Amino acid sequence: MKKYLFIIITGVILASCTEKKKEPIVVSPDQLHNSIDHVIDIMIHDIFSPPVASRIFAYPNIAAYEIVAQVNPKYATLSGQLKGLTPIPAIDTVSTINPQLSALIAHMNISRQLIFSEDKFDVLQDSLFTQWKTMNEPEFEASKTYGLKVAEHIKTWMNKDNYSQTRTMPKFTVNTDDPARWQPTPPAYMDGIEPHWNKIRPFIIDSASQFKPIPPPAFSLDEKSNFYKELKEVYDISNQITADGDESEEVAIAKFWDCNPYVSVTRGHLMFATKKITPGAHWIGITKIASKKVNNDFDDTVFAYTKTSMAIADGFISCWDEKYRSNLIRPETLINQHIDENWKPILQTPPFPEYTSGHSVVSGAAATALTSVFGENFSFEDDTETPYGLPIRKFNSFNEAADEAAISRMYGGIHYRAAVEVGVDQGRKIGALLNSKIKMKNN
Fold it and tell me: Cα torsion for 404, 407, 413, 414, to the nearest 10°?
């Protein structure tokens, strides 16, 4: 009898000790970085357009940020500041909810819904859920329940941004009678993507046309006209930077900032796409680099991602509004028709009108947002493109990187000078509005 009593008491003591070992779950910024990296990999696989990709970044980040802002006095809620966003469900401060864990779960839940290959995301999510449940099941379950509740709140708001309506709108109609209008370009001759993106509800700007840029130079094939001079400049620069056969610095810059998810490769009778990140994903990668360099904690990392992703998203809305307004023809088409039928740009021309440059607008917006977070002269090593075989590039500031990203489009042969210079300024105006209009910090 004593023997059995001893075993029972020992079992109770061991069980008690086991319960005491369950410590709070610590969510690291690296887990957020890894989750976003995983989403980017899936987005590359699924081939999302740059505008759609920007939407995939913004909503999960906002969901995570709103949870953080409830418990961290340093941050202010975005509800009432972003169009249509109402306060998320209040967190139960006396329960076992872990706010950071809830934030990451909400982030992952919305990310999963916005991609196509959900099964690929489930591998990471299931692994983390198992890990957290083993560490502290009560805390995990409470945090998960709250995180999913917030995710549903954000998704209800998200689903009113006109995205689903734009899926049923007509394709872009090409006007071949007007020589100034955009035409599909080789090798795939794809339709113009997202012609109705200006109808997406913006986050910061009042409307898609708030920062409507000046018109591009008037179309003219008169060799003395400003337009023709810009056309000839693209052709001449391309020939100069490829003249000696070795890869010049300008060519390296063009390739580094390519970020075209629509690159098609022809092998005999077969055509297939090569995988690349979008311009927005590149700047999300830079956000990760900066956050890790200063050793940001989870909350500060969420803040940096959220601010940058909103700038990127509105950058695409503003840019696409102008693209399908001016509907300008690409350099490749005109050079082949009027200057050199055998000429090819260094980069493959993406499938949408020329003016303004999307990469320039988005880079200007993201750089301005990041500068407000990390400072004016924040140097960093950009290794975002190393998975795609490109070397690290070093920058002394985000604005320096944005200027290089913008001019890379002309080096690549896919944009005229006006598109990159006006575009980066357009983006910086969006970033400046974000910095002045949206209060995200309480101090």
Answer: 100
Helices (H), 74-117: 99-114
CA–CA gap between residue 198 and residue 326 (Å, rounded): 13
Mean pLDDT by 10 residues, the chain (443 residues): 45 46 89 97 94 98 98 97 97 89 98 97 96 96 97 98 98 93 95 98 98 98 98 98 90 95 64 74 98 98 98 98 98 98 96 98 98 98 93 98 98 98 98 98 89
Cβ burial of 86 (10 Å; 0-12, 13-18, 19+) is exposed
Token pair belonging to 393: 């590039």
Both tokens of residue 408? 């890379």
Give ∠ CA 86-88-90 in degrees, rounded to 5. Answer: 135
**DSSP string of 361-390?**
HHHHHHHHHHHHHH-TT--EEE-TTGGGT-
**Contacting residues for 406 by C-beta, under 8 A, at least 6 apart:** 357, 359, 360, 363, 364, 420, 421, 423, 424
* φ, ψ of residue 272 in degrees (nearest 5): -140, 160
pLDDT of residue 5: 43
Distances (CA, A) of 259 to 138, 281, 295, 330: 43, 8, 27, 18
- The secondary structure element, H or E, covering residue 394 is strand 393-395
Q: CA neighbours within 13 Å on the CB side: how many for 361?
A: 29
Q: Which residue has the tokens 């060519």?
A: 251
pLDDT at residue 443, as a whole number: 77
Question: Are the beta carbons of 366 and 279 closer than 8 angstroms?
Answer: no
Residues ≥6 apart with Cβ < 8 Å to 10: none
Contact (Cβ atoms closer than 8 angstroms) between residue 182 and residue 143: no
Q: Which residues pair with 272 in a beta bridge?
A: 265
- Return the amino acid letter for 329: I
Count of CB atoms situated within 10 Å of the CB of 118: 13
Element at 2 (helix H, strand E): helix 2-20
C-alpha count within 13 angstroms, C-beta hemisphere, residue 397: 12
Q: According to the model, what pLDDT value does residue 3 have? A: 46
Strands (E), 232-382: 264-267, 270-273, 380-382
CA dist., res. 96 & res. 136, Å (int): 10
